[in-house]
Amino acid sequence: MRDARAASPGTPAEGPVASSLARRTLGDLRERLGGWWPTRLDLLLSLAVGVAGLVESFGRQGPASGQVQHPVAMAAGAIAAGALLLFRRRFPALMLLALIATGVAVRTVTGDGYYAAWHFYSTLILVHTVASASELRSRRGLAGLGCVLAAYAFLQTLQSNDLAEVMISAIFVGVAYGSGILLRRQIDETLRLAERTTRLEVEREERARRAVEEERARIARELHDGVTHNVSVMTLHAGGVRMLLGDDRERERDMLIGVERAGRDAIEELQLMLGVLRDYGGSRPEAHRPGLDRLDELLAQVREAGLDVRLRTDGEPRPLPPGLGLSAYRVIQEALTNVRKHARAARADVVIGYGPAELVVEVVDDGAAPVLDAVAPTAGGGGPAGGGHGPRQAAGGHGLIGMRERVTMHGGELSAGPVPGRGYRVAARFPLSGPSGTC
């Protein structure tokens, strides 16, 4: 008893497991059979013909004329006819021929001329299916029509029919065939309407997308024409004032140079950002956005200006988020601009390090002139130490602020300061998110 009770809790679990296995097996069978698998309508028609044939065979059995004298053979024929209906959608014409063969076999076995109702019903169902399967003008349609005529001719041999009975059979077969044609045309029309509706929906979405793109382009043009024009005017005025200053106004000239550079950078940034609005494809703005993949173009421009720049990459390069790649590019660009314009350096080394969890960007120049008041290395700041006011700090203060903002935006740190002896170093560290430090 104890063993039986111990085993009983596992018994109910076998039911769900067996049921789940049966469902999986049935699902696999459906997938393999594909179009062979009968629908619920096929099952219903098959069941109706089979049950009606059984009722007719055993309910009308008897020795008299007009009764079923061999009920078993007649019932077997009814069950066979019902089974043929299960595959009516897959092979409609072939099933109709098989039904004729079933009728011939039943009549051969029974030897009487009993007109079986189940045979007539099955014939009408298969005639309807044949007509709905293919276009009459096709080769398959003509073959199906030939099978329908053969089935109708066989119906007339089951008993001695008068003209009225022949006409009635013709009407029923004709209606079954005509209804199949109408059903097929209705299905074709429904498919055409569905296709047209889908096409119109796609066109509507495309028109809406183009309307949004055109509106974005219009806004971009207005912003570009207005904002960039005003910034350009401000930059030109600052340059004009700088040219009017004498040589004794070095500090004011440097400040105006910074204003001009800020104006040019602002125009460049506006063109970059507004290009996103102007673009129609949705993917091209990224192609115009600077990143480390376009660093060679920047270094080529700097070399043309007379500065010897060398690039070294540590680690395995990998794709970076567009925003982070843009910020790293801007840090290198700003650092090289400061070197070229204010450091009086002959050489600069650019180092890009791809670490497991961070990206390090470093620009070091040889700084031909000594830095009087050094800017000490800072983390996330890049500001002066001890309130120094050396030439490098005065010239590059605004640039350091911009670089610091870009690095801090990504959660990184910026350090800037002199190197032992002479020269200057700007280093930015960007943390990389994702598994194993991947972006």
From TrEMBL:
**Any idea where the Histidine kinase/HSP90-like ATPase domain is?**
327-433
For whether the record's keyword set contains Hydrolase, the answer is no
Keywords in alphabetical order:
ATP-binding, Kinase, Membrane, Nucleotide-binding, Phosphoprotein, Transferase, Transmembrane, Transmembrane helix, Two-component regulatory system
Kindly give the InterPro entries that the UniProt entry links to this protein. HATPase_C_sf, HATPase_dom, Sensor_HK_TwoCompSys, Sig_transdc_His_kin_sub3_dim/P
Q: What is this protein called?
A: histidine kinase
One Gene Ontology cellular component annotation held by this UniProt entry? membrane
Pfam families tied to this protein: HATPase_c, HisKA_3
GO terms (molecular function) for this protein are: ATP binding; phosphorelay sensor kinase activity; protein dimerization activity
Q: Which residues form the Signal transduction histidine kinase subgroup 3 dimerisation and phosphoacceptor domain?
A: 215-279
Give the top-rank taxon of the lineage listed in the UniProt record for this protein: Bacteria
Q: Which reaction does it catalyse?
A: ATP + protein L-histidine = ADP + protein N-phospho-L-histidine
Enzyme superclass (EC):
transferase
The membrane spanning regions, by residue number, are 41-59, 71-87, 94-110, 116-134, 141-158, 164-183
Q: Fetch the SUPFAM superfamilies from UniProt.
A: ATPase domain of HSP90 chaperone/DNA topoisomerase II/histidine kinase
Q: What's its EC?
A: 2.7.13.3
